[in-house]
Amino acid sequence: MASKIQPSDRTVYDFSSQSQKWAFVRKHWPIYVISLPGIIYFLLFKYIPLFGSIIAFQNYNIFKGIKGSKWVGLENFQRMFAYTDFLQILKNTILIGIYDMCFAFPVPIILALLINEVRVMMYKRIVQTVVYMPHFLSWVIVGGVVVGVLSPSTGIVNHLLALFGVEPIYFLGENTYIRPILIGSGVWKDSGWGTIIYLAAIAGINPDLYEAAQIDGASRIRQVFSITIPSILPTIVILFLLQIGNFLDFGFERVFVFLNPLNNENGEIIDTFVYRAGLVDRQYSYTTAIGLFKSVVGLMLIMISNTFSKKMTGEGLY
To answer: Which residue in 67, 42, 43 sits closest to 54, CA to CA?
Structure first.
């Protein structure tokens, strides 16, 4: 059974001098060279841009720059919470994040368990390929497909509803349906791709465990609940923690392609508001403050969840 790595499984190198340490680095230099592009990427695009967050405390003027812009302290944050629509936007972001965690997160796990039980290899590969394919479509294409499927005049959903005497529904024109549409389209697009990690974890389970279970007379369902799920539980916990870290980061494109003035009330989230207020209305400092608030909340959530997970399951990100 796959289990978490215990301290005794780790290789610990004890260097008595600096020369030994550098000799070790020279010996394994290809590994360090391979890691350089990743390190440079994160430095350039993830860490250096963090210094730009300082404009959240300024009344930033694009012509004066950071040095010449006026400092305003926490004024942008006060303005953020004083804005009447911000609480609705924050509520939308939190609710959509919760729905995504409750309904979209378990789907790849269930899908991986089902695919793993398929014994006809050709059929298994076809199913895997079919469920992976939507991941390679852009959100613009996915949005076009969903709009076509849900169209009140030509959409297949309304045609099916008409068979039962239901009047055509303009799904994207009502606030009630925008959240299920966002979650459902995300499930269709990415759930197949998410199964890759779980299938890889399942492939690492010792086959002897299943053979022993079969000898003991365990059914297939019993094997799933007693061997497969416990074995991939560490993977599930790690991915769940990462999901919590992105709790408020639902994605701009994923929402923007479905938004319109009719469903804006329940559909607008922080990312789309930042785009509208920051890039369209050029309120750079204000939207940077909102983005900073979102990042701090995400960091706090992942730290709390990691601590809670380590106490409950012994698994954590760090």
So the answer is: 67
Answer yes or no: are the C-beta atoms of 143 and 258 closer than 8 Å.
yes
Asked whether the predicted pLDDT for residue 5 surpasses 50, the reply is no
Single-letter amino acid, residue 161: L
The CA distance from 69 to 56, in Å, is 11
Alpha-helical (H) ranges within 57-151 are 65-68, 75-82, 84-99, 106-116, 121-132, 139-149
The proportion of the chain whose per-residue pLDDT surpasses 70, expressed as a percent, equals 95
d(CA 164, CA 162): 5
Neighbours of 226 (CB within 10 A): 15
What residues contact residue 152 under an 8 Å CB cut-off, 6+ apart?
158, 168, 169, 170, 171, 173
Q: Is the pLDDT of residue 3 over 80?
A: no
CA distance 127 to 119: 12
Residue with tokens 């607008």: 268
CA distance 237 to 167: 44
Amino acid, res. 149: V
Q: Identify the pLDDT of residue 276.
A: 85
**Among 243, 242, 127, residue whose Cα is nearest residue 195:** 127
DSSP label at residue 45? I
**Contact present, 224 and 110 (Cβ < 8 Å):** no
Average pLDDT over residues 88-114: 91
What is the spatial distance between Cα 236 and Cα 229, in angstroms, rounded to a whole number? 9
161-189: per-residue pLDDT in tens?
999 888 888 998 888 899 999 999 999 99
Rounded to two decimals, the pTM is 0.79
Farthest CA pair distance, the chain: 82
pLDDT in tens, 273-296: 888 888 888 888 888 898 888 888
For 201, residues 6+ apart whose C-beta sits below 8 A from its C-beta are 2, 231, 232, 235
pLDDT at 39 over 60: yes
